[in-house]
Amino acid sequence: MEFRHLGRSGLMVSEISYGNWLTHGSQVEEDAAKQCVQAALDEGITTFDTADVYAGTKAEEVLGRALKGVRRESLEIFTKVYWPTGPGKNDRGLSRKHITESIHGSLRRLQTDYVDLYQAHRFDSETPLEETLKTFDDLVRQGKVLYVGVSEWNADQIARALKIADEMGFDRLVSNQPQYSMLWRVIESEIVPLCEQEGLGQIVWSPIGQGVLTGKYLPGQQPPEGSRATDKSGSAMISRFMNDDVLTRVQELKPIAADLGLSMAQLAVAWVLQNPNVSSAIIGASRPEQVRDNVKAAGVKLEADVLKRIDDVLGSVVERDPAKTQSPASRP
Ligand SMILES: NC(=O)c1ccc[n+]([C@@H]2O[C@H](COP(=O)([O-])OP(=O)(O)OC[C@H]3O[C@@H](n4cnc5c(N)ncnc54)[C@H](OP(=O)(O)O)[C@@H]3O)[C@@H](O)[C@H]2O)c1
């Protein structure tokens, strides 16, 4: 495994991290979840990403149990707050009340005294930014959270947060967690330049397009049984890539991966890691073999001619519109 700084902070993270959205507490049984975490640890992954909302809070519990007994100082545990975790009007968003209640629930479920990174899962247009940032800053001072970051905020929202933090002396954001893959490059034109200048690192999600970039979904055919595209919670999110144009072009990436001696998943993870603003690529897995396959992307260098071949194959199916970085207009 290789390690990178999280943005300009002093925190080192494994350049491939393991995330348990859609899998732990939902798609896969606890035994499989634990085996995936163990495979991640065996392969040198030290950074683990989850969220209060995953599997209705069960994913944090599963991760807490799976990491029990591992030396805490050897792990970086990331979680998030924003999406609803209960039926009440205050069980969501980035108010002082919800953030404070949610971090306590996360720490309990994860069986830890602190999380290394606490992330605002989306932008909350119903809470003053000062209230959110002050609450984050208080959690840092209390030692419950070591660093703060955001997820899927647009460049304007990140810039406003940094300005307030600088004016008020609050702890600064160190990271952003966006979707990023060969197919989804919407952060490149606005967010990455801002974050490079301001010292935030990207912790990118769905680097293999939720499985699409493995090439296992064939155009014109039913998805393989047991894959995310057949999962009741997973199928909606993956559907944006499940069309024949995308799937046909992805098949055409296979010779590129083969020429490099890489699996398709390794090529996809290696691709996001070529961007120096990426601190870590968060991989998901429903089976431990997938973790063992995907981690081999660590440290792989892709030359300019390979990147060009990929661009030539994918062509117009690549999404680049920065306006696609969106949070709900009002709280969910
Ligand atoms: N901040 C956010 O809003 C946000 C949103 C989404 C995700 N995330 C984070 O990012 C993490 C990763 O997201 P993701 O799970 O979508 O990432 P991903 O790595 O793009 O997709 C993972 C899925 O692809 C399939 N797969 C992985 N490796 C494979 C291989 N070698 N061969 C065949 N299939 C393979 C598996 O699904 P099947 O076996 O079921 O097909 C696996 O669960 C999440 O766990 C979460 O921590 C954050």
Automatic annotation (TrEMBL):
It holds the Pfam family Aldo_ket_red. The keyword Ion transport applies. One of its GO terms (molecular function) is oxidoreductase activity. Gene3D superfamilies: NADP-dependent oxidoreductase domain. GO terms for biological process: monoatomic ion transmembrane transport. Residues 15-313 form the NADP-dependent oxidoreductase domain. Keywords: Ion channel, Ion transport, NADP, Oxidoreductase, Transport. The keyword Ion transport applies. GO terms for cellular component: cytosol. Belongs to the shaker potassium channel beta subunit family. PANTHER family: HYPERKINETIC, ISOFORM M (PTHR43150:SF2). This is Voltage-dependent potassium channel beta subunit. It comes from Nonomuraea thailandensis.
